[in-house]
Amino acid sequence: MAESNFAKQEQQLSFYMIREDMLPEVFMKTLKVKDLLAKGEVTTVHEAAEHVGISRSAYYKYKDAIFPLHRMDRQRMITISIDMEHRSGVLSRVLSLVAAREGNVLTIHQTIPLQGMANVSLSIEMNPAAESVQALIQAIRSVEGVRRTLMIGQG
Length: 155
Hints:
This protein is α+β, with helices and mostly antiparallel strands.
């Protein structure tokens, strides 16, 4: 089956990193419109565009072409299962370790402790520029009170 022209064009795209102060103002205003909409501070594109001082057509022209760098690099999500002793501070130390290694915890699910052990499932958004997933899992395994750590999903 032949590729569409859109798919061919998409494969040929190049991306560049440009300092914010070098961008035309319309790009920064487009990002502000997207932010206002995402945060629910406004309900329509018209309202957001008017608020930042650009036309709706300018917003629609650039909205799919500009993204903050932090949005483009956040693509790696993992889910890990951790068996830990039911003691004060164990989960806190694990969460601190994840944060120190540039992980963002999306969900936490902890079971009721049985026989002094609890299971915690963490879904973590990892910065691809940070360390490897295996290094993070190994670091979690070394936390006092952690008995077992397994990666159960990656996306």
